[in-house]
Fold this protein.
Amino acid sequence: MSRSSRPAPDSDDDLLDTLERLLPRDDRYRHSHGSPGHGADHVLPTIVAPSVTIPVGEGGPLLGTWQSVVLVDLNRDNPRRSVRLSFLGG
């Protein structure tokens, strides 16, 4: 999960394209079970944090004008996902 700058509508696609270039889907990984390139799924959390803390106020996330929350999952072996939200009172 990433909280990122979003200066243009295509930023999400740019992020995915960049991650695909950094972590190609091929047989270079020693961790090789699953689909080709599955080892990249285990490297991804070192580049994109698996969790993020987002301040919430007035009924919504407190993000900058050009920020958004992006869920990133390139793992093709597990198509079903769930998202857990936890709220802490201040």
